[in-house]
Structures are given as structure tokens and as C-alpha cells.
Amino acid sequence: MPPLPAATARHARFPAFIAVLALGVGRPAPAPAQQEFTEDEPSLPSVTATVFRRFADRVVKIEVVETGSAGKASVGSGFFVGPDGELITNYHVIADVVHEPERYRAEAVQHDGQRVPAALVAVDVVHDLALVRVATSPPSFFGLRETPVEQGARLYSMGHPADLGLSIVEGTYNGPLRHTLYERIHFTGSLNPGMSGGPAITASGRVVGINVATAGNQLSFLVPTQRAAELLAGAGAAEDAPGNLIETIGRQMRDYQDAYLEALFEDSVPTVVIDGYRLPTEPATFFNCWADVTTFDEDPYTIREHHCSTDDYLFISRDHFSGILEIDHELITSDEFGRVRFFSLYSTEFRASHRALDGSETDVTAFRCRASNVRRLNLKFRAAFCVRRYRRFEGLYDVVFKLAALGTGRPGLVSTLTMSGVSFENAQRVVRRYLESITWIE
Description:
- By secondary structure, the protein is α+β, with helices and mostly antiparallel strands.
- It has 2 domains: about 45-240, Thrombin, subunit H (Beta Barrel); about 250-440, Protein Transport Mog1p, Chain A.
- The protein has helices at about 45-55, 90-100, 225-235, 240-260, 340-350, 425-435; strands at about 10, 60-65, 70-80, 85-90, 105-110, 115-125, 130-135, 155-160, 165-175, 185-190, 200, 205-215, 220-225, 270-275, 275-280, 290-295, 300-310, 315, 320, 325-335, 370-375, 380-390, 395-405, 410-420, 440.
- The chain has a 7-stranded antiparallel beta sheet with strand order 16-17-20-24-23-22-21, with helices on both faces.
- The radius of gyration is 26 Å and the shape is elongated.
- The two termini are about 35 Å apart.
């Protein structure tokens, strides 16, 4: 399951802080020796304090304001990347402005407290980036040059966690994620809601990445600087209208899924043999696969599971994530169930929903399904092909393809392919390849 873009504060409240005293067991520890300090002894500034002092004026708070109430609906961060007020932030920070411009507007609050309107210039929904512009000239700004960084290097992330004020977080660069089609950087540091869109920099002020998401426990993620540099270089001089940005997002999503699905489940796809079935697994290097066996104490049957997915996803709106592709294989066996009881269990597993895709009624239509019997070499399947359409983005769909092997004397196989944000043509092609990669070993 990919990490969610949890680094944007919405309706932020102060957290409850609980102090916990740990009492040791055994002999009491000796009292520490007292250290003497004099008022004249200077304290040396830390590297972190120096970084904050040097670069804090380049980072802003971005507020999305609900125009009817004139109150902030969400808070994120951004940073200056040009002399004419250009700012980089995350797309998910300002997505409400794109989708409902009549209801929301964006404002930037600078380091000195000055509040200025922020106009959208360009977006990159695939890499969760946005370029905005304010009508002020910043005192200084960051460059967006690629910076070679070794694993373990110290980074400093800046942003506005929970709207508590500009903060700095130390962390460690741990390289790109392995299981993504589009690069993300693993940042071992505590990003928190409200820091989305802020910079993660070296001690010298080189931007290594843009804060984008967190999974908690200091497991956080950055968008590489190069992606922001490309967005800045490709943007026009004038801001784009929200309606045009919707068209841009739709085009970016279509290009994304074209690249994502082009080579999946071709002849060279890896397979795994489970209970006599040869099944597709890890169809590309950016997939991650897991397996387990579940035995139910109440009922004498076993489900052997094999699951493959990526860490990729696209934030479209607050209720809608896309760009997800997953494989689920379930092998169901029982030594005690009779034929009728096993068929009932098998049918229940086939009808069960394995993946709750995001999207409200304003984002997508209801699913429509078509079921049929399908024969593939020495196997016969009951297959269901379910589709729902995106309302805002023409030509894009969510697709769930599920099949159950029919016959006797074999373990029950329920296999599910889930795709979100794909064209109908690509969905048909991938489903056909997927089905052709499943065989029974005699």
C-alpha cells in the first residue's frame, strides 16, 4: 500500500503531548556529575541553527482559503525558486484551487509575515508538484541544480508542521525508492502535516528534494529536485487558468498510464508456481511482491496469497487517488469441505471486493461489470470485467478484472488485477496479456 500524502495540514489542531517517565529496575543509577557554566562562555551555533538562519526567508507557508468563510481550509509549504516570485510546492497542497477555483484561493505567507495572493502557473500531477507565483520579489531564492548525494548524508527539511510556525527537521538521505516507476527519495526524518512542498536541503543550501509524503516513524519521502527544475523550465510566463490545468492533468495522467502499462505482462513476464498454477508475478522491476498463508481455525480451509503492487500513486483530489496497479492471487484449499460447501466458499471469495479504490461520486461513476466464461488452453475461468469512468478526465477509467478457475480436482484460484486511471484500450490489452500468462501445469 503506498504511503499517503500526509504532509499537508488540514483543519490542524494542537496535538496532545504526553510525557512518559521510564523507571528502571535494580540499583539506582549514580547521579551525574554537576557541570559548571559561566555566563561569559559562548555557545556555538549548531549546523541546524545555521541552516535555518541562512535559508528560512526562502520558505513560505501556503494557505488554501475557503472564500465563503475567508478561513483557511488547509496549510502547506513552498519555497522560492526565482527572482520574480516563483514558488515550488506540492500539487496536493493546492489541488482544491485547481478543482474548485470558485470556492478556494491560495495565499503565501512569507517569512516576515507578509501575506500575498499565490497564482497557479503550472502543475505536474505525476510527480505531485506545482509552480505558483506571487507578486513580490523575494530577498533570496534556491537554485534547482541536481546535487549528487551519498546515502547517509545529512539533510535539513523545512516547512510549517500543523501550522505551528516554520520549523526545521534533520534527517538522512537514503536514496531512491526501488518500487516506483517515478522516482521518490527515501528521507529518514520526521515530516509532518503542513510540511508538504517545503525543501529538503544540504547544509550549503542545495535543494535535494521536495517534501511530499510520510508513513510515520521517520519514514518520509521527497520528490527529486530535477522534477521541479523541469516544471520550472517548461512553465510559461503567465499563470494557467484552472480549466486549462484540468486538461493538463488529464493529459499527464494519460501519458503516465501509457508509459506505466506499455510493457506489462508481455512474454517475458516472471511467473511463480503455486499449487499447480503458473501465475504472473513482479511484471516490472518497480513492483514489490509479498506472500503469506492464512489458516482459519473456525473453518477447515486455507488461503495462500500472493500480492504484487508498486509504491506509485497519483494524488488527484482530496478524495481521489489514481495510478495504482495491483495483482492478487488467492489459492483456496480444504481437505474437509464437501463439494457444495467448498463451492459456496469459492463463490464468496470471487464476489468479495479485494481493493477499495478511492473516488467520490463527483470523481467517478459507479462500476459496471460484465461476467462471462473464458477458456485459456487447459483452463476454464469465470471472469468479471468491471469498469468505472472518470467524470473530470475524458478517456480514463478504473478497471477491476477478476477470474476464478473452474473445474474439479484442483485448488480454487481467485486472481484479481486492479488498475486505476487507465484508458479502455490499455485496460483491454493488459487484461488479455494477464489472462494469457496464467496456466495450469499438468
